[in-house]
Amino acid sequence: MSPQTIAIVGAGIGGLAAAALLAGDGHNVTVFDQFAAPRPLGSGLVLQPTGQAVLAEIGALATAQAHGAAIDRLIGREVSNNRRVLDVRYSHNGTRAGLAIHRASLFDALLAAAIAAGAQLSPDSPVAGQTHDAPRRIILQNGKQHGPFDLVVDG
Q1: N or C: which end of the chain has fewer CB within 10 A?
Q2: Straight-line distance from the first to the last Cα atom of the chain, in angstroms, rounded to the nearest whole number
Q3: HSE on the CB side for 68, CA within 13 Å?
Q4: In whole angstroms, what is the distance from residue 76 CA to residue 63 CA?
Q5: Rounded Cα distance, 99 and 102, in Å
Q6: What is the dihedral of CA 114, 117, 118, 124, to 10 degrees?
Q7: How far is Cα 100 from Cα 45, in angstroms, rounded to an integer?
Q8: Which residue, 51, 1, 8, 46, is CA-closest to 26?
């Protein structure tokens, strides 16, 4: 497939992961974000083995592992009666584990991977919409248009 010109709206975890994968495959990727500088939102999370495989694919797993902690079991209990409502057990031989990580650490690893793959960032660019005819253009809140793009991804 020939390289596509792709816009990704949102520099969150999903948008940056998509940017790193698509740019790594040779596509021309621009990530539009409303904030003046990319930044993480939220607290911690647990990455399942599938999510860790994506990080490995984009070269960000080692960084994430260095800032996270492997977990072999995740138990959730209902507050009112202490009833177990979640019990996730990972492999007992250590080959599979969840990765507990703060969102800011994961964000930093994904941002570095997206930039290293060649994705371009367009901060301070709140998107208001897009044109619906091909090729598509991104319309910012200030009325400026960017593009054309072969694909627009809501990240």
Answers
A1: N
A2: 22
A3: 29
A4: 27
A5: 10
A6: 0
A7: 6
A8: 1
Query: Is residue 26 within 8 Å of residue 32, measured between CB atoms?
Result: no
Ordered per-residue pLDDT tens for the chain, 155 residues: 799 999 999 999 999 999 999 999 999 999 999 988 767 677 889 999 999 999 999 999 999 999 999 998 889 999 999 999 999 888 766 568 899 999 999 999 999 999 999 999 999 999 999 988 877 999 999 999 999 999 999 98
- CA gap 100, 120 in Å, rounded: 29
Peptide linkage before 135 cis (omega within 30 of 0): yes
Q: How far apart are CA 134 and CA 83, in angstroms?
A: 53
* Nearest residue to 14 via CA among 37, 35, 41: 41
Q: Which residues pair with 131 in a beta bridge?
A: none
- Give the span between the Cα atoms of 72 and 96, in whole angstroms: 8
CA distance 55 to 111: 12
